[in-house]
Amino acid sequence: MRTIGHLSRLPDERPGIGAPPRLAALRQAVAQAVGAGTWRTDPPAREMKLGGTRALAFAPHGTAKATLVHFHGGGYGLGAPEMAGPYAAALAERCGVEVICPQYRLAPDYPLPAGLNDGLKVVEALRDAGCGQLILSGDSAGGGLAASLTALCVADGIKVAGLVLLSAWLDLTVSSDCYDANAASDPLFSRASAQDSSGLYLQGWPADDPLASPLFANLAGFPPTLVSAGAGEVLFEDSRRFHAALEAAGVPAELSVIPDMEHTAVIRDKSLVGAAETFDIVARFIDRLLADRSSR
User: Fold this and answer.
1) Which of 82, 198, 213, 233 is catalytic?
2) Residue 239 annotated in active site
3) Annotated catalytic, 190?
4) What is the pTM of this model?
5) Which of 5, 190, 228, 271 is the most buried (most CB within 10 A)?
6) In whole angstroms, what is the distance from residue 187 CA to residue 209 CA?
7) Would residue 137 show up in a list of annotated catalytic residues for this protein?
């Protein structure tokens, strides 16, 4: 058990279990899509290792103004950094930042805290390499990972310039009424799928622990944060409550709500409702972060 400031612990890694057949089939489909170049970018990403973790780096033209680390979604059990590639490449070009997408380990093979440990090692490696300003980001479960990682960084004195959360899954207790209220308007996520994914990731760890559910973390000292979600998502309440908690903690926070936007639209396809608007909101948020830092 490792001590991390006021969070008191980063638990030792635990043995996991094999992926159930349906999840294994979905992983194979993602791997085939990656192999087929579904998310290929031009220019291609640079593959690298950071703290022992594979990552894809998308560089801007010229010198990068900052480094943004983006964690992909997939319920902690699915996904690959390539899936965020087109978004990452576009953001790198638009904002002049290097975007790094880690391939963190997935549950149930590697339950909490394996993915979080991977993220922390990536951040520590970037810090040790003198990456300059660091922005953390994530979509869906990757957003939860980014938020929990931010709490660890704040507790451990690692400077984070900003946080971007896109349709983030921030409460693994799966207790929000939004799962029922928005069930008909969210084709990608549900209470049943959330309960299944949460169980495979936690494997007995308390769902309300801040390492698992950053909605319950001490948010004092968090960096400026952008929280984005569609009003019809089952995770909308996670975003609303997290934004309110940030404001209550005195953190500069922006909440972007687009009525008809689907879960992680900006990552999946820029032609989806609200995706282009969300991309512009993220880009302007990063612009402001960099302008504020450069003026100090």
Assistant:
1) 233
2) no
3) no
4) 0.95
5) 228
6) 28
7) no
